[in-house]
Design goal:
44% of the residues lie in helices and 16% in strands. It contains 10 helices and 9 strands.
Length: 301
Amino acid sequence: MDSYKMSHVQIKMDKYIKKREEIKDALDEKYNGKKASRAINSGSYAKHTAVNVKFDIDVCQPFLRSSFETLEAMADDVFDFFMNDYEDSELVKYKTKKQRVSVGLTFLIDGEEVGMDIVPSRELLEDDYKVTNRLNLHVRAKGTEPATSTQTNIQKHIELISGKGDEREIIRLLKVWNITKNSGKKLKSFFIELITIRACEDYSGEKLNGLWERLQMVMEFIRDEIESIQLKDPANSNNIVSNTLTATEKSNLSYDMKVMLDRISENDENLKVYFSVNDKFDNEDDESKIGASILSTKSFS
């Protein structure tokens, strides 16, 4: 049964990746002469921090500086393309939507919905992207917040995680908890990545043995430091990622970590309550493999 589930999920993942490449091909054809490069993978699959409880796949399309007069025009053009021109029998057209920095697509593949976010971006200066990988994004208005722009560097984000196998394991576990057990109080994946890396960088205690000790250390760091720590986007120092949480949300997160640590200390079987997904899939070096996590407490030793 386990091998069947493993094969079934892997087949689905292969189909999702194939769909992503079809989208890249469509962007290539539509924007030939306007793009700074072929669309690039972004998000958790590019960083090898994906988990097998959520199958959203992100793609970023870099455009030349001269391709559009404004960032808003760029973002609207990509939305209009997928809403009006792009044809795909698996695309749920009416669910195509404008999001803050992306176009949200929904596909129905083998009876299951899978989301794909297309992030339009534009190089800062003409021919700058090939040298620096820097990109500007249009940020749509939300509520009382006006439209604006933000700078990013997806390659820097990927390099931030590269080679950090221990950190990736912890990031996956915290993402599993965030998706399945966090009572709808979803944290941004980038925030989870940054605070995990900071916890590991700041740790100066005795050598940690095993996955549980590393996870425990990060959870204790979040519990103790979340209300005062400042986490900056390494690609844009003006983007304070820790500010995506309010003071109340930070206090609640600290409390959630305390409760989990206390419950696990009382009974290590509670690890499976908070971090229970299939551990058969390894996303460490192959993006077509689904990210691993924990089923049994022995995996933490």
